[in-house]
Write a structure and sequence with these properties.
Helices cover 50% and strands 12% of the residues. It has 272 residues and is α+β, with helices and mostly antiparallel strands. A 5-stranded antiparallel beta sheet has the order 1-5-4-3-2, covered by helices on one side. Strands 6-7 form a two-stranded antiparallel sheet. The chain is globular and about 55 Å long.
């Protein structure tokens, strides 16, 4: 077991932030997290977090996954004092971090996310894992890995549609075929090495991947934290509070993190 006191990390907020869909809620502030071919249970009380792994694994995998090398307190302190809305959003979502997730998992998840909500996305993604992922054990827990492109390659449009993907089922069939034909590892290596503009061009060249999904993949799958996805929530925020545009130049190098605060805050306000 590893215990840490970590500021600006709230498991409940991250789980509800719309960036990851495979976490399993095991109790209050307690989650089972499958990622990068491994699994950890994380439990939180305030800033005290306990992880069900050894020190070596935590430092090699989970510290990076939770982006612990980034100073989120400094990012929040750098927000324009005159921007009351953004400061309120950052205070409200103070514990959100942009996770360093698996590229393929993010690409599939956000392909599914189009015109969808977090609950349905989560059910569809976890359905994919149970149907085509590998069943694994971690102590007394059973979990399923996220299925590889090869594992999904044999699935049909009707298979995916049965999981509630609707019209997105044909997108996933084509996407899987495209990356398998290109050789996933080589394709992913080239994408990770690409700059922001090239990455967007490569991603939007995929069938069914538009600008918003591509920006989400850049932010959550490539950790290009200048990416600023604009969905209905962010569009509403921009129209109401930033009619002249959001100052991405001022926040160069972490605009995508601020986008997460705005998204989470708007989602919470809408659901009150």
């Amino acid at each position: 077991m590893v215990e840490r006191h970590i500021s600006c990390l709230d498991l409940d907020q991250i789980a509800a932030s719309g960036q990851c869909f495979t976490w399993q809620r095991l109790g209050e502030g307690h989650y089972g997290i499958p990622a990068r071919g491994s699994y950890v249970e994380a439990e939180q009380r305030g800033e005290r977090l306990v992880f069900s792994c050894g020190e070596t694994e935590f430092e090699a995998l989970w510290a990076d996954y939770f982006d612990l090398s980034t100073d989120y307190e400094a990012i929040q302190a750098a927000i324009d004092p005159a921007d009351g809305y953004l400061r309120a959003a950052a205070r409200y979502g103070r514990g959100i971090r942009v996770l360093r997730q698996d590229l393929w998992e993010v690409l599939v998840s956000f392909l599914i996310s189009q015109n969808n909500n977090i609950g349905r996305i989560t059910r569809s993604v976890q359905g994919l894992c149970r149907r085509w992922g590998e069943e694994r054990r971690a102590g007394s827990r059973t979990y399923w890995s996220f299925p590889s492109p090869a594992a999904l390659a044999g699935a049909s449009e009707s298979d995916f549609a049965a999981l509630g993907l609707g019209y997105r089922a044909r997108y996933l069939v084509r996407l899987t075929a495209e990356v398998e034909a290109a050789g996933y590892e080589d394709w992913a290596r080239r994408l990770r090495a690409a700059g922001a503009e090239e990455a967007m061009e490569r991603l939007t060249g995929l069938y069914g991947v538009g600008k918003k999904v591509a920006q989400c993949v850049c932010l959550f799958g490539l950790h290009q934290v200048d990416a600023f996805p604009v969905d209905t929530h962010i569009r509403r925020v921009l129209e109401a509070h930033y009619p002249a545009g959001f100052d991405l130049e001022r926040y160069k190098g972490y605009g995508g993190i601020l986008q997460q605060y705005l998204f989470y805050y708007d989602l919470a306000v809408k659901n009150r």
